[in-house]
Design brief:
It is a single chain. This protein has helices at about 1-15, 15-25, 30-40, 50-55, 105-110, 130-145, 220-230, 235-240, 245-255, 255-280, 285-295, 300-310, 320-325, and strands at about 60-65, 75, 85, 95, 95-100, 115-120, 160-170, 180-185, 205-210. By secondary structure, the chain is an alpha+beta fold. It folds into two domains: about 1-255, no CATH class; about 265-325, no CATH class. Helix 3 packs across helix 4 and helix 10 packs antiparallel against helix 11 (about 285-295).
Length: about 325
């Protein structure tokens, strides 16, 4: 089993750019995006997914293909929104999926779009620096891009709110972070006295970081939905997104191969973690802890037993001994 796992991981790493691209592609569809926005964007919390879809400027959805930190990746930008930010003094950055969306009130008042949203699927957690700092930089650049080249005539009053939503699905995410979601926002704190200020003047940047464990179940709707999207679980997708159009169905189908790879990687990583936890407890108690950990990832007893005895610490365990804790 170990040889199979290593071979699969090698094959996946060789095709990392293609896998990342397919994960990015699924988020180009507003039917798939709507449930994510409902649970991450405060302004959309009380809206239906259908209402949210109507607020997304579909023509503005754009992407960068094959965004990867592995060698051989290509950065190709697709209009209509330029997903590459360049300036004389700053390094170019590449947004994975970027689009504009209206606030609910805009539908009646016909005010210009007032949200800029960046979606960043992230298959690699260990990139050599904190992803949180990168996400904050991205949302800051997203805000800055609205003004272009600064001058004495620059109207800062035109700045509109930006969201950067990061979805990390790397199986090697630290255990304490798996299946978590958090928000970083720009808020006001009165140091002395009470300042009366329109919130829209400073509430301009938010980052949402989602650390997804695709091998474990969760009752948190956002995580459950994203797991469904990334592991090709149509039932989970439709449960929150509603009936899909033919185009959305096609894009979900395209995720089937990637979904199985993500599921397999998550399962194997879970097995490794279970073995480590079991060993820490000592042989007898460790076996009990190991079986309990593995049951979260492996439902079939024969497969679970094979995973247990694969480790030399438990190689002499009988099926009866393992089944005692199954």
């Amino acid at each position: 089993m170990q040889d199979e796992t290593n071979a699969l991981i090698d094959n996946i790493r060789d095709a990392e750019g293609s896998m990342d691209e397919k994960c990015h592609d699924i988020f180009l569809n507003k039917e798939i995006l709507a449930p994510i926005l409902k649970q991450t964007i405060e302004e959309y919390r009380d809206l239906t997914v259908e209402e949210i879809q109507s607020l997304i400027d579909e023509a503005s959805i754009s992407k960068v293909e094959s965004v990867s930190e592995y060698a051989g990746a290509k950065n190709v930008k697709i209009e209509p929104i330029d997903t590459v930010l360049k300036s004389v003094s700053d390094k170019s950055i590449y947004f994975d999926v970027f689009f504009k969306a209206a606030l609910p009130k805009d539908k009646q008042t016909k005010v210009s779009f007032q949200l800029y949203v960046d979606i960043e699927p992230q298959g690699n957690y260990y990139v050599g620096y904190p992803l949180t700092k990168r996400s904050i930089y991205y949302v800051a650049r997203s805000l800055a891009r609205q003004l272009g080249v600064l001058s004495g005539e620059t109207d800062y009053g035109k700045l509109q709110k930006c969201y950067s939503i990061w979805i990390c699905y790397d199986p090697k995410i630290p255990k304490k972070l798996k299946n978590t979601a958090c928000r970083y926002s720009f808020t006001r704190e009165d140091i002395y006295g009470t300042v009366e200020e329109d919130e829209t003047n400073y509430d301009l940047m938010e980052v949402v970081m989602v650390m997804l464990d695709t091998s474990a179940d969760t009752d948190f709707k956002l995580l459950d939905y994203l797991k469904g999207v990334l592991t090709y679980d149509k039932e989970k997708i439709i449960e929150q997104a509603g009936p899909l159009s033919q185009q959305a169905e096609k894009e979900v189908e395209a995720m089937s191969g990637v979904g199985s790879m993500i599921r397999h990687l998550g399962r194997e990583e879970g097995i490794k973690e279970g073995i480590k936890e079991g060993i820490k407890e000592g042989k007898t108690e460790g076996l009990k802890a190991l079986v309990k950990s593995l049951k979260a990832f492996i439902k079939d007893f024969n497969q679970l037993y094979a995973a247990v005895v694969e480790n030399e610490e438990y190689a002499d365990m009988t099926e009866e001994q393992v089944n005692k804790y199954y």
